[in-house]
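Fill in residues.
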């Protein structure tokens, strides 16, 4: 199924994924992760994007972010991609591409799925078998949201802030979301949505996005359209 046109609307969060070329590693030591995060912070500030959650895997990155201006995320990702590829090529005396094409993204119905996307992103190292528990992975936003350490990159979304009146209350309530296993069907749904660039939300939210974007954001149904019955006079 073909990917739909990319949606770049201000003030609506997006789930973003970028994978290494041929699924190969993009990060090789701690310095690489640190450089990427520093570059992400600069690019997010330059293009007015709020980063809410992230994970840097050896061969991929994922994040949840809200652009405050139209096309903020696409501009941020282009700038970040160029800067990081130049860094890696110079440091490791290599050339050529690093990423498997352009990043993938899907807009998120915040009320229904935002904190679920946080969990999806921050549980990735555990689901991939890299660590046994998400707090053991250094290169994600999990420890920020659970109160173990703060990250200067992140800007808390209003739905995270609504979890409690204080930092400790929010961290405690957020930690409770991880007490239960992630539903497999929901995992598959989020993965398919980001793969195809579809909207992560219900029909009402999708219709709202189509009106704002002024183009279709849902795939066409397969098969030929039904013929209208002929009428006789």
């Amino acid at each position: 199924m073909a990917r739909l046109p990319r949606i770049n609307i201000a003030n609506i969060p997006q789930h973003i994924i970028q994978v290494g070329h041929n699924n190969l590693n993009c990060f090789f030591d701690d310095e690489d992760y640190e450089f990427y995060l520093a570059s992400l912070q600069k690019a997010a500030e330059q293009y007015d994007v709020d980063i809410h959650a992230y994970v840097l895997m050896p061969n991929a990155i994922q994040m949840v972010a809200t652009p405050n201006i139209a096309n903020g995320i696409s501009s941020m990702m282009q700038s970040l991609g160029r800067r990081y590829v130049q860094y890696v090529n110079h440091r490791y005396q290599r050339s050529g591409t690093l990423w498997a094409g352009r990043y993938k993204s899907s807009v998120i119905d915040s009320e229904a799925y935002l904190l679920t996307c946080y969990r999806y992103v921050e549980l990735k190292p555990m689901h991939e078998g890299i660590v046994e528990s998400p707090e053991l992975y250094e290169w994600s936003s999990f420890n920020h949201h659970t109160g173990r350490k703060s990250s200067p990159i992140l800007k808390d979304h209003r739905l995270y802030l609504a979890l409690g009146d204080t930092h400790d209350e929010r961290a405690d309530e957020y930690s409770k979301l991880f007490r239960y296993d992630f539903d497999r069907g929901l995992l598959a749904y989020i993965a398919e949505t980001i793969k195809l660039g579809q909207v992560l939300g219900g029909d009402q939210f999708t219709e709202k996005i189509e009106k704002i974007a002024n183009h279709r954001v849902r795939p066409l149904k397969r098969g030929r359209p039904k013929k209208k019955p002929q009428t006789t006079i």
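DSSP finds nine helices and four strands in the chain.
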